[in-house]
Write a structure and sequence with these properties.
Elements (H helix, E strand, L loop, with lengths): L28 H13 L3 H17 L5 H16 L3
Length: about 80
């Protein structure tokens, strides 16, 4: 791990802030999120809904959400997956 971002040279690397998960330690905060946006741009709507649903199930497993809230959100992901792209 370096003190500077290997994409832009910034020193603004805060692994514990701004929703970062500790990965990509060589990227500053802006480049960290920019990289994720680039990955999402190449994802279809259906793939994004499946990924979101899997993340939500993980939140529920950790006790962060109630079952009703989880089910409503998973239902919405199913609707998105069923949509034509």
């Amino acid at each position: 791990m370096t003190d500077r971002c290997n994409r832009c040279g910034s020193y603004a690397i805060n692994h514990h802030c701004h929703g970062r998960d500790g990965s990509d330690g060589d990227l500053c905060d802006v480049c960290y999120w920019r990289k994720r946006a680039e990955n999402i741009r190449n994802t279809t709507l259906k793939e994004a809904a499946i990924n979101l649903e899997n993340s939500l199930i993980g939140f529920y497993s950790n006790g962060a959400w109630t079952e009703g809230y989880l089910q409503a959100t998973v239902d919405m992901c199913g609707i998105i997956r069923a949509m034509k792209e």
